[in-house]
Amino acid sequence: MATPATPHAPARPTVAVLGTGIMGAAMARNLLRAGLPVRVWNRTRAKAEALEADGAYGAASPADAVTGADVVLTMLSDGPTVLATMRAASPGPAPGTVWAQAATVGDAATAELADFARQRGLVFVDAPVLGTRQPAEAGELLVLAAGPDVARAVLTPVFEAVGRRTTWVDDDGSTGAASRLKLVLNSWVGALTHATGEAIALAQGLGVDPQSVLDSVAGGPLDNGYLRAKAKAILAGDYTPDFTVSNALKDARLIVEAGERSGIRLDVARAGVARFERLVDRGLGEYDMAASCLASFDEGREPDRGAG
Predict the structure, then answer these.
(1) Quick one: DSSP state of residue 175?
(2) How many angstroms separate the CA atoms of 88 and 103, rounded?
(3) Could you tell me the sign of the dihedral formed by the alpha carbons of 282, 286, 292, 297, in that order?
(4) What does the alpha-carbon distance between residue 264 and residue 89 come to, in Å, rounded to a whole number?
(5) I need a surface site. Which of 42, 55, 199, 212 has the fewest CB within 10 A?
(6) Phi-psi category of 211—alpha, beta or left, where left has phi over 0 and alpha has psi -120 to 50?
């Protein structure tokens, strides 16, 4: 097992972004805007090539992407995909390279990834981010981070470029402390998403104008920006993804599994999994997760957008 070298903290670290979907591409662009050298790789080559016009180096392979990088940032779909990609990249990173694992993979997978990093002499930082497409594009993500002090100076310009704030929760990434916090926060996001969708669906079913529901809570303790954003999308019938149903389902399953391992019964999260599964089964996996509203209606029935 390799011992990580002390990472060097350049003023402009070169960052290898592995995974350039909705979130990864937005983060890569913000890194470029901050003046950092960026190397990108994505399994679907065209998504990485789209960033070359912004100044990124489009790598032919994960190993090509991470060669010469000071920081490797992974933003891939799940734990097994992250691990497989880092295995493919393993000839590239030098000992002491900082690996910021930003995807939501859950606490169990994080421990496995941290162990892989130890074997390769990499400095592992558990760094999931909270936010969807819009805050990612605006560089306003909340970064939840756990990792050793030696990595923080290296990552400061990286996290400042992609986020509005970084919350360090532990000095050891292998504990999964940041990933566990992310699961708790995602459980709240999921509950708000489904509650918004069901409330609007019920209003439509009862012949109540959904706008009157929003007007009734305006400015009070039941009002919040997330409710407004998702309700707006639902009432417009616009499910352009900020965060897809498929990704939300993956996260919801991680939440339920974590609860089971901890002996915690999560009835609301389980119900949320079932709602997202119905949507995926109907071919709506690439819709925004606001489509939870549609799970309240039988397939083929389009809900009214105004009064029911």
Answers:
(1) G
(2) 17
(3) negative
(4) 37
(5) 212
(6) alpha
